Amino acid sequence: MRPALASSFAYDILSSKIETRSARAGVIGLGYVGLPLAIAIARSGFVVTGFDIDAKKIVALEARRSYIDSVGSDDLAAEIDGGRFSATTDFAKLAACDVIVICVPTPLTKHRDPDLSFVEETSRSIAEHLRAGQLVVLESTTYPGTTDDIVKVILEKTGLKSGSDFFVGFSPEREDPGNQHYHTATIPKVVAGDGAQALALMTSFYGAAVKTVVPVSSNATAEAVKLTENIFRSVNIALVNELKTVYAAMGIDVWEVIDAAKTKPFGYMPFYPGPGLGGHCIPIDPFYLTWKSREYELPTRFIELAGEINSAMPRYVVGKLAEALDIRAGKALSRSRVLVLGLAYKKNVADIRESPSLRLMELIEERGGKADYHDPHVAEIPSTREYQHLKGRTSMTLTRETLETYDAVLVATDHDQLDYAVIASSAALIIDTRNVFARLGLRADHIVKA
Question: How far apart are CA 162 and CA 222, in angstroms?
Fold first, then answer.
């Protein structure tokens, strides 16, 4: 049985509102994390206001048009028409929200230091409208200590105090774009709070929207949970990426090795190599811990080495491409046209955040080649922080005739809807970073694994 909590007026009122679903929720940042979360909260019975600085997103949402694959437009329309969801750029409306959830980006600087400018700016915006009886939650991935040392400190500059006037918590996002088995409401939710009352409010609020809630002892612990999950994946992917290069030199197929190894029913979990890491989490989050660890004069050599290996993969792949063009086609990469298949960082989604495909295109053109792309989910390259020079390029139509005009096709993302039989029979040379052709039984001398 949970021990009784010391009562406060602010806590009692907010707890009652959450329990009766009369609390109004606000979600700041309506991207891959924020929009699915907002809809899940609305479905559970709360009235939700979504906030974003991008007016184009608000226009799309008001037109009942979802731009996130995991949120269907029909589902969006149902919550809007039911009066449970609306979206705005007017942050003054935060004052009416009882629970405010921050889902903004936490990228890295050019020097791989944490860029918390979005979190800080958002916290200051909340502070302008902060009142007693609110719960403020951070979901953005970050290093341990951010919620208490940055978000809470900014909010307390108003004169209100966390734990008595308002409450602060952290719950790491666990979205997985394209996952057909789990969605926001069915993925277990780790929650933490600044004090026992904050944790109780977090447990009650998220427990209304998701199937399983996992309380932990502190906000820093919850922040560390998210980093640990992504570091685990980063390190293991780096391992198989390194094994790929070693086994290739030995004439051994790393994918065959992994497929055989995973038949062991204990002590092994399969991870697969690729052209580099993509998405917001794995390429970025581990470096938040390496940065924070410097404060304690502790090295994170394992994590940093994994980052170096994964970051080197696009250059390795382009090297294999150049080698294959030279040996098999007698042509230099500098005089070649290359079609990159898949711009998204993973298959069957439109998410290009940190996608290695962008880096592959850049490296090909740095070496004098011409790089185009085809992606059934990404019609045009949008504005990005690091690849502004690629903005506006459009997806090429994928036909036999188109394929025949390229010196090589580089498979970076193995979308299911691509016709690999046609690609195999039409392309002069194929560089396969995903082992998709072998998986489909399409083996030929002009298909090279990389």
Answer: 18
Q: Per residue in 337-361, pLDDT tens? A: 999 999 999 999 999 998 999 999 9
Angle in degrees, CA 38, 39, 40, rounded to 5: 90
Q: Report the alpha-carbon distance of residue 174 to residue 100 in Å, rounded.
A: 18
Residues 416 and 303 in one domain: yes
* Domain with 148 in it: 2-216
Q: Which pLDDT tens digit goes with each residue over 257-311? A: 999 999 999 999 999 999 998 876 777 888 899 999 999 999 999 999 999 999 9
| Catalytic residue ranges | 281
Co-location of 118 and 33 in the same domain: yes
Full DSSP string of 115-145? --HHHHHHHHHHHTT--TT-EEEE-S---TT
Residue finishing a domain among 216, 245, 269 = 216
Identify the three-state secondary structure at position 238: helix
Are 173 and 140 spatial neighbours (Cβ–Cβ below 8 Å)? yes
Q: Which residues, including other chains, have CB under 8 Å from residue 275's CB and lie 6 or more apart? A: 313, 314, 317, 356, 357, 360, 412, 433, 434, 450
What confidence category does residue 109 fall into, taking pLDDT thresholds of 50, 70 and 90? Answer: confident
Specify burial of residue 360 (Cβ count, 10 A radius: 0-12, 13-18, 19+): buried
If we measure between CA atoms, which residue out of 65, 120, 117, 116 comes closest to residue 87? 65
Q: Between vectors from CA 49 to CA 158 and to CA 146, what angle results, nearest 5°?
A: 45
